[in-house]
Amino acid sequence: MSATISPRRISILADAVANQIAAGEVVDRPASVVKELVENAVDAGARHVRVEIADGGKNAVIVSDDGSGMTREDAILALDRHATSKIVTAADLVGVATFGFRGEALPAIASVSRFSLATSTGQDDATEVVVTGGRVDRVISVARQRGTTVTVRNLFFNTPARRKFLRSVASEARAAWDVIGVLALSRPDVGFEFVTDEAVRLAVPPGQDEPTRLAAIWGRDVVATLIPVRHAVGPVAVEGMIQRPAEARPTGRRTQLFVNGRPFRDPGLIRAAEAGYRSAIAPGDRPTVLLRIAVPPVDVDVNVHPAKLEVRFRERYAVDRAVEEAVRLALGSLDAATSIGPAAERPLWRPVPPATVLVAPQPAAELPFPAAPAADRSGLDRPGGRGMTAPVIQLHRTYLVYETGDGVVFVDQHSAHERVIYEQVMAELDAGQVSGQRLLLPITVELTDEELDAVERYREELTRVGFEVEPFGGRSVVLHAVPTPHPRFDATACFRELVADLARGRFGGWANRLERFAATYACRAAVKAGTPLSEPEMRALLHRLFETELPPHDVHGRSTIVSVPFDELERRFGRR
Question: How many structural domains does the chain have?
């Protein structure tokens, strides 16, 4: 039996009900109160904001600032719905630069709490407005310096059903801390203090540089793994900090985005940043990212979410492209290489050195490693600084070592050659090139059933890199041509290992089939650790490495380059 709903007349909601509905959109927990009040404080020009909470904010949230304050008339008017000093006409919504602008937060919060607002402009007597459940109880004169203090007690006392949805004290306190942390990162020029149950959780002064502020919020251990990002494409500028690929992990990452100083969420832009890490981290790893995006105010709409957590870009593709390029370029600098030494003593914002001038390469016929296309690697320190003339030595038949102007650089020869081959193979696969060498005596290789399937599945890619494969009957195949990436290349061993890896999915996880194949082939074709190299071979390999797009990283997320600053050596030997 279906229930029937009797028709009701349309009526205008009472202000108290409308405010409580608005509270449901704007305020769902104490952290939402903290967010709205702190944003108001910053918009009021505060240089210092103090936030105190009790019982996770359930019983008390107190936000004090030294901003411009309000007169008595404005303090009373601020508690009316849609009252705001931040916009006047609808046209002001385009390019609005303040955190808040809707004019619903204060009346919404006051409607579901025991609320008081004390404020002063510093010229007139201070005013305190006391509100209970949306009803103004009294307006009195009080003593206060310039600024505003908002006190919110017993949140949702008059809506017990909503209060039951609040989480534990610890969970609500963590949520408030997250809000404070994001706002403190958005405005390093403002000082913040956060006190929970009389314990100071955060105290940062105004005017901090970004690395210092970030270390206070995220911790020095996290900041030590980050490198700077700076890039611009047309009107879109991107800067911030991203994690070195070697430090990225499947879990535990942090991400934060800002547009024109406003924090927002956008999974699509995070994916664009991760695309910049392509072939530099292992599949499944998730790097920490903090990016500040600047676009013309008219090109971003911030009025698309009740809590102002999302934005809409007029030219979305341009922003995605700028983010991906910014990350990619940052990962190609020596800053992205692993560095030995205490993070606290290393500058996070190292200036990019002027372009280094490489000596003319040897003729291709004399190079043990074929020459690569020239690329602009102006941000990298090559052997010798002014050219490849500094001594290069091989340690443990595995690491190439040379001196730069800042310290000593170690290069893993296998990882370096892997990067070189990967980028060369990707270019060949994209261009449809074939670079094999015909054999006078074909090679017969016996495979398993799974490996035979892998050969058939990747036949086109094998042919493009130079392996000409033909079935021979049973489980055998014949190689009529093989690639020649370097003089020490063992074609039969590489083919066996490559096919075995492809069959068993050892290098699985790549979203792109060609990238997976190129990564697997590069790993198997590169010179191995333990292989002795001559000085010309070492120089040729370094020359090619620094012409790749991402020299500091191999295709599995491991480091190719490790640098030891002279400052660290001097510290270890007691010279500092």
Answer: 3
Q: Could you tell me the two tokens for 465?
A: 């890199």
Residue 259: C-alpha distances to residues 97, 98, 184, 226, 312 (Å): 10, 12, 15, 20, 10
Task: Give domain status of residue 545, yes or no.
Answer: no
> What's the rounded Cα separation, in Å, for the pair 285 and 282?
6
Query: Is there a single domain that holds both residue 97 and residue 43?
Result: yes
| Beta bridge pairs of residue 195 | 52, 200
Q: How many CA atoms lie within 13 A of 379 on its CB side?
A: 21
CB atoms within 10 A of CB 106: 26
Tell me the whole-structure pTM to 2 decimals: 0.78
- Identify the H or E element spanning 495: helix 491-504
State which of 157, 182, 207 marks the end of a domain: 207
- What does the alpha-carbon distance between residue 411 and residue 337 come to, in Å, rounded to a whole number? 10
Which of these ranges, 340-354, 527-541, 554-568, has the smallest mean pLDDT? 340-354
Return the SS3 of 52.
strand
- Using DSSP's 3-state secondary structure scheme, residue 261 falls into coil
- Identify the DSSP state of 553: B
Tracing tokens 């009701």 back to the chain, one arrives at 8
- Res 162: pLDDT: 87
| CA atoms in the 13 A half-sphere facing the CB of 229 | 28
Winning range, highest mean pLDDT, from 170-184, 275-289, 351-365:
170-184
